[in-house]
Amino acid sequence: MAVYGYTRVSTDRQADDGESLDVQRRQLEGYALMHGMKLEAVFVERGVSGSKPLADRPEGGRLLADLKKGDVVLTPKLDRMFRSSLDALDNLNLLKGMGVSLHMLDLGGDVTGNGISKLVFTILSAVAEAERDRIRERIVTVKADQRERGRYLGGRVPFGWRVDGDGGLVEIAEQQAAIQTMVAMKNNGLALRTIAERMTARGFKLSHEGVKKIISAHGGANRAVSPS
Questions:
Q1: 3-137 carries CATH number 3.40.50.1390
Q2: Which residues form the Resolvase/invertase-type recombinase catalytic domain (predicted)?
Q3: Domain locations in the chain?
Q4: Crossing angle for the helix pair 208-217 and 192-201, nearest 10 degrees?
């Protein structure tokens, strides 16, 4: 019988703070010692989201490939190994079929051993997945609110804007005027490449694809503006 541990953090910062990899490892070592187990190896998943199926993670895949009948897997918490109830239940059935025991410290131990443990495991897997969905919804809501208030959400700053010290988007008058000019040129039937060439001559180095994205982001053509 081999005893393996599995730990995971989704970001590099979590590797050192909060539920760090070191803290998780110490929890596994303490549990193994209390139950007379010898922890042979710990599979450490660094910077991988729990929403990714266990088998598709680098260390998760290695762990599953190494398991044999009679082996034991230890993990500190349900959400360190699974955030999807479907993935959790699929792997629980897989491990039981292989004759492998799965111990989750936050659930009190072996979740493959009896019906009560499986029931608790199923409920908490669904709860973990629901919480992940709520987090995703909150992020979407916050981003939508930030966008409406003209806040910078990261990535490349759009043409015509700059980011101020408070993280807000502020118009750049010269580039805003250039946007109006490009829209007007498009309304007048000029090709995107021609617009890009003319704007480059005015000091705005833009490709025809860049021009297309800028015009599309500002409502496309057919605006009632005149080229300057």
A1: yes
A2: 2-150
A3: 3-137, 161-217
A4: 100
Report yes or no: 199 and 211 within 8 Å, Cβ to Cβ. yes
10 is catalytic: yes
Residue from 171, 172, 188, 170 nearest 228 by CA: 188
Residue 41 CA, distance from chain mean position? 27
48 token code pair: 């991988």
Distances (CA, A) of 212 to 184, 187, 191, 227: 13, 13, 10, 17
Q: With a cut of 50, list the residues of the chain below it in pLDDT.
A: 15-16, 223-228
38, with CB counted inside 10 A (0-12, 13-18, 19+), is exposed
Say if residues 107 and 121 touch (Cβ distance below 8 Å): yes
**Residue 74 β-bridge partners:** 5, 103
pLDDT of residue 228: 43
Output the 3-class SS for 57-123: CHHHHHHHHHCCCCCEEEECCHHHHCCCHHHHHHHHHHHHHHCCEEEEHHHCEECCCCHHHHHHHHH
Q: Are strands 3-9 and 39-46 parallel, antiparallel or unpaired?
A: parallel
Angstrom distance (rounded) from CA 175 to CA 168: 17
Query: Cα 140 to the chain's mean position, in Å?
Result: 13
Buried b or exposed e, range 108-141, using 16+ CB within 10 angstroms: ebebbeeeebbeebeebbeebbeebeeeeeeeee
Residue found under tokens 């003209």: 150
Measured in whole angstroms, the distance separating CA 57 from the mean position of its chain's CA atoms is 13
